[in-house]
Specification:
single chain, about 130 residues, alpha+beta, Aspartate Aminotransferase, domain 1, six-stranded antiparallel sheet, two-stranded antiparallel ribbon, 4 helices
Length: about 130
């Protein structure tokens, strides 16, 4: 059993376990990257960022974390280009780069996959992205 399978199996909430398995496949398909466990985040791909302040680092191109309150999906370029898709997504909340979903049954998975695919393409157009 690999570390991601073990991580998902340790989630106490069975619905979140099932949703995490679905998201694992959906985000791998949408991104074209294999998953990797980064703390409590399952990330796909990697890019290097550098801020004007000089701070720099590496982060996942897209990822998710099954948190106690909800599932958080990290859409790195944010949501300003996707209002038409968010309107069709279903029950969710957003912050700058985070999409919060209580359970996948609340959202349209095809719309979620489209948001994920578009966000990965946007990241690839701005950064040199690679498999971690």
């Amino acid at each position: 059993m690999d570390e991601i399978t073990t991580f998902i199996a340790a989630i106490a909430n069975e619905t979140q376990q099932d949703d995490s398995r679905i998201l694992l496949k959906l985000l791998a398909d949408a991104s074209g990257y294999a998953p990797s466990l980064q703390g409590s985040i399952i990330g796909f791909g990697q890019y290097h960022y550098k801020y004007e302040s000089g701070r720099e680092g590496d982060s996942a191109v897209i990822g998710f974390s099954p948190r106690k309150q909800n599932i958080t999906i990290y859409i790195m370029p944010g949501f300003s280009n996707y209002p038409h898709l968010l309107a069709r997504l279903g029950k969710h909340k957003v912050s700058k780069s985070c999409l919060y979903i209580n359970k996948l049954a609340d959202v349209d998975l095809e719309v979620l996959k489209e948001i994920a695919s578009l966000s990965v393409k946007e990241m690839q157009s701005k950064y040199s992205c690679s498999q971690k």
